[in-house]
Amino acid sequence: MANLSSMKFNEDEMLSVLSEQLLPGEALCAAVYCAFSDTGFFATRIPVYGYLGITDRSRLIACQAHLTGIQILTADLNFAKKLTVKTPVFGSLFKQKEVYAECIGDRTVKLKFTVIRKIAGKKFPNQPENAETLLRLIAEKQQQLHL
Fold it and tell me: Alpha-carbon distance 24 to 105, whole Å?
């Protein structure tokens, strides 16, 4: 999977791509299709779509599909400096949640993404349940770290 045009954007591909990034003995707890936003002062308003998973070790694994290629990012929530979950302006209408995670490890990783609970079509049949699980695990970690 080298570029955006080769992606199928379905649940099987999502699980395959995210599973390739798992550490030995690690398991994926939930995986969702989501929209990523840039962070920082010069952030663009154009979202990048892709996959996001959370593991049983509280690691986020992101696969962002850019026009120029695929970017994989990982962020360990055990080292979160900032972790917020909020409803965007029209989020309650579309049942969306926006998450921002800033984690410090070998390098600082900032992820901002919108979790969409319901995807039209049948390519992501488990999206509603996985979205709920992902958001619940993030909220639990947020509470545990007092962020």
Answer: 19
CATH number of residue 55's parent domain: 2.30.29.30
- Name 43's Cβ contacts closer than 8 Å, sequence gap at least 6: 37
Whole-number Å distance between alpha carbons of 34 and 18: 13
Counted domains in the chain? 1
In angstroms, the CA 96 to CA 144 distance is 23
Q: Which two tokens stand for residue 133?
A: 């699980």
CA 34-105-41 angle, 5° bins:
55
- Cβ-proximal residues to 145 (8 Å cutoff; 6+ apart), any chain: 77, 80, 83
DSSP lists the bridge partners of residue 73 as: 62
Q: Per residue of the chain (147 residues), what is the pLDDT tens digit?
A: 456 667 888 999 999 999 999 999 999 999 999 999 887 666 666 789 999 999 999 999 999 988 888 999 999 999 999 999 998 876 666 678 999 999 998 889 999 999 988 888 889 999 999 999 999 999 999 999 886
Domain ranges, residue 49: 4-144
DSSP code at position 94: H
